[in-house]
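Pasting two entries for a bug report.
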Amino acid sequence: MSLIRRYPTDPGIPLIGNTLEMAKDPGAFFLRMYRKHGPVYSVNVFGRRTLVLAGPEATLFLSSPEGRQVLSSKAFWKDFIEEIGANTIINGEDGERHLEMRKLLGQGFSKKALDGNYGLMFDIADRHFDAEWKPGTQPRPLPNMQYLITEQLGELLAGGSPKEYVQDIRLTTLFMLNVLVTKTRPKFFLLSPAYQAAKRRSLELADRMIEDLRVKSEAGELPDNLLGDIYGAFKEGSPYFKENDLPVAILGPYIAGLDTEANTLAAAIYGICKHPEIKAQVQAEADELFKKPTTDIEERDVRKLELINGCVKEALRLWTIAVAQLRSAAEDFTFEGHDVKKGQMIYVATSVPHYMHEFYDDPETFNPRRMMKPQNQHLQKGSYAPFGRGPHVCLGQGIAEAQMALIIARLFHKRDLNLLHPDYKLKTKTAPTPGPTNGFKVRVEAIRN
């Protein structure tokens, strides 16, 4: 019988502990701690001790039968749910209730939601590129992608774009996640007038969209999409979508996709432009796709974009959005010989393997071919989890990857882009999600097609 051990602790800096290092670069921090302490250790964030399960061991445990049983998401989202005035959200449920909510939302979040809408997505992208990506200009990919993604999601889900609310949704998400979920900011931040105004406008948007759905429902014209599924479940008396649950459920696609997809797209644009040989190959692959009319493009055509899909996957690996999953121990358990008590708050650092040379050759380099046959380095067990693992894996993974691949293909088909300086190194930020800074720019050299 193996000896059960308590986990090691890392003291960090006096008073503030590990807070600054973790805030500066959480991916690098969790990797360094893994190399120092192994797959189980404790960190000090704002004087609060939190357990970390890290590395491929943690990634595999998260999706194992035992991990599904003993790790809970609910506790981390309690304050978020109260602040938004809801009864529940999908992240705040575990077990059968969580599975039931995934079934209700699954169709609307799947790649099938794009069927018949590829032409619309490209039309929206073309209008955006014509307005914001003109030859000789220096657009900022991050905010540009935020607006483009919001417009595409708005047209697909609601028949209109809430572009004027983008910054309100971003600011509301930033404050609520950092204060109420990750708890890396103190609660008095929620008293900020800027946050209160952004939250008010975000809920105003939700109310407007709910009223539109009510009118359509009464006319028997509820749309066959995610928002239609949510409102339909509400009308049928679903216990998961009561009236006060509708605002956050309706805003959910924007909250989930706005920053995460935009960060990944901006990072992929950097990686492609940083390597001229990759850019040339991306352009060739995109040009081949658009030999057919945009209205004739289908899901199978998206799957054929091997290099472009590789670029998206590599950006998700190298500039990971979901650095760690937030969980609590639903019961006592042991992990890698260490004792974990019920109620213990836990970071599951699933991003650690993304930066390990044991899995990836030269892991700090952008190399999309590692994600393609015959290499497929990301298919090694426990090596890749950009959308999380286990029962709470991102529900919108399929539609997000397809949307990002299509945007990259259309952008590099339509425009010739370069970095402002060939030796530029991407600067990143961590809030509300890790990714390129708002100041990152590219230069539009010319219109290609």
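Entry 2 (this is the one that rendered wrong in the viewer):
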Amino acid sequence: MKLLPAPAGSGIVFRRTDLDDFEIAATGRNVAKVSYATSLMRQGVLISTTEHLLSALIGMGIDNVIVALDNLELPILDGSALPYVQAFLSAGIHAQRRRRESIRVLRPVEVREGDKFIGVYPGSGYSIDYTIDFPDPVGHQQAGVDLAAETYGTAIAPARTFGYRALEQQMREMGLIRGATPQNLIVLGPKGPENGPLRFEDEYVRHKILDLIGDLALAGRRIEGHVVAERAGHAMHTALVSRLLKDRSAWELACVPVPAAPAAEEAPALSGAGVATPVLAGV
């Protein structure tokens, strides 16, 4: 997989080099399925497991990029977004002349499903509060992040995906998690992580925030507002994107100041990023 610079206003576009450079824009209209990961599809061509890369791009302020890959699935790397962030910083992020546009939320938009909930509300910057409630050993966790504080690289990107050992066989029989190993996810046994230590005490909920940022990237622009989620997941994340975009009275396009490119010190050191990145387009 390679990430290539793109002109201002291009957005994030996936390019299947094995299919005559067929392109799929990272937008809500191309969402295909959302179970344990988020996939995009256009004219029968699929791109799978997009959320970690999209999260890293939005979290680091990259609006325009071409993602070139020669198969349908993005690499899972270590199960977090940190290798992507470090690759971006190593390659360099270029601020373009065109001003960045955001989706400024004007009034609340919510999605509810039983005891699950997600909503986006007017607010300055881009902040998220997420609450999860999983079986032990995860349990109840809550965390928040303000992306305007430019802490994505240290506070969210390193958080890894997780899965329960007790569900492994069932999920493999369903054709899921075929590439899952202790090197790319937190394996949860009855007594806790089998491949610890955790990178954060609340790493599980931080990873859900990571996923949410990636899924909300499918709005096509960074959101200006406050997002609250309780026990949500990929399906509800993308349902919120769809509901928000359909309700044109709930938001407006707004120009925002162009921030300086993030410093290389923002992301913790981790070798083997595993992704080739020339200088990327920041706005």
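Dev reply: Rendering is fixed now. As a check, the viewer should reflect this: The first strand starts at residue 2 and ends at 5.
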